[in-house]
Amino acid sequence: MADTWVRMVTAQTPTNIAVIKYWGKRDETLILPVNDSISVTLDPNDLCTTTTVAVSPTFDQDRMWLNGKEISLSGGRFQSCLKEIRARACEVEDEEKAIKIAKKDWEKLHLHIASYNNFPTAAGLASSAAGFACLVFSLAKLMNAKEDNSELSAIARQGSGSACRSLFGGFVKWTMGKVDNGSDSLAIQVADEKHWDDLVIIIAVVSSRMKETSSTTGMRDTVETSLLLQHRAKEVVPKRIVEMEEAIKNRDFASFARLTCSDSNQFHAVCLDTQPPIFYMNDTSHKIINCVEKWNRSEETPQVAYTFDAGPNAVLIAHNRKAAAQLMQKLLYYFPPNSDTDINSYVAGDKTILKDAG
Ligand code: ADP
Ligand code: DP6
Ligand code: CO
């Protein structure tokens, strides 16, 4: 085997948006959550991460570039993911390229990783979810690991909690698990991407700036200081998870919208109940909530659900294409581009509408 070969794998992974939120860890190192969560995975052509992982005997250390800039891999989360995947690496034989990597070679071979997000990083649009899911998935393929996506989800979880849910399409549940080593804290698919394909997701990018308080820091402060979080995790979320699974299975949009909006609002209430309080939403986010609430009340049944992650950007889920068109019409009327409302782009389906208009 010549010693100048390079083996490369590229993968693309969509982000996911939680409709029942994960917020709070019971174990910081293993990333074990205080409650179950449910999300919807976006279309792979929408907001996604593309990661290329390469291995070569000529590489003398593990290195990573994110959006073109080199970043450090020394953090515990990257190290956990690399360690877990390396432990599962298997023999690779590529006759065409005359490459043969024995199982034990993976311990000493180094990696180069290049990752690119096609949407704002660290701005509350779940870049850590798409990012770590894609990293773990591409490494597993590179190293010929035999684990299924649920098992890989438990590794991605150790990079960023929300990442475990991006290993599957459609609606996905992250079960918090019971055991101390976290092996049962993983993602399972609730319904596949075809199950409810009338839904249209529109994201109003209110700000693509990096958030001031990362999800990790924010939820740590919440766990330490918020009493409301304990009520939420023990009393509220377990019931909502059951109801949400039902709503998804029955394609019951009225229940789905009620649960999604309530859970987003309670998550932000918990942030406000944190000491010092965390404000992820801004005036524009609040105006969007008002607009959707008013519209939903004026209809026989709700037409749109809203949810906001740890940032001011609105994720709007419309009942169907007609509701999505009406929603866009309303958004453009109330939040016109180049106004002081601050929305700088809308992303719908696989298209960005009005990119950077504001
Ligand atoms: P977000 O709301 O975008 O998920 P977080 O604060 O949760 O913001 O996480 C942002 C962090 O996730 C980044 O600082 C980086 O460490 C990590 N991250 C983002 N994109 C990637 C990627 N493509 N590959 C690996 N890690 C990533
Ligand atoms: C509001 O998964 O980004 O998006 O596990 O510390 O990396 P870490 O946090 P992260 O938190 C996501 C929080 C959320 C809700 C959710 O995705 O469920
Ligand atoms: Co994140």
Automatic annotation (TrEMBL):
Where does it primarily localize? other
Q: Return the InterPro entries for the record.
A: GHMP_kinase_C_sf, Mev_decarb, Mev_diP_decarb, MVD-like_N, Mvd1_C, Ribosomal_Su5_D2-typ_SF, Ribsml_uS5_D2-typ_fold_subgr
- Mvd1 C-terminal domain residues: 201-358
Q: Does the keyword Secreted apply?
A: no
Q: Where in the cell is it found?
A: Peroxisome
Output this protein's name: Diphosphomevalonate decarboxylase
Give the species. Euphorbia helioscopia
The Diphosphomevalonate decarboxylase-like N-terminal domain covers: 14-187
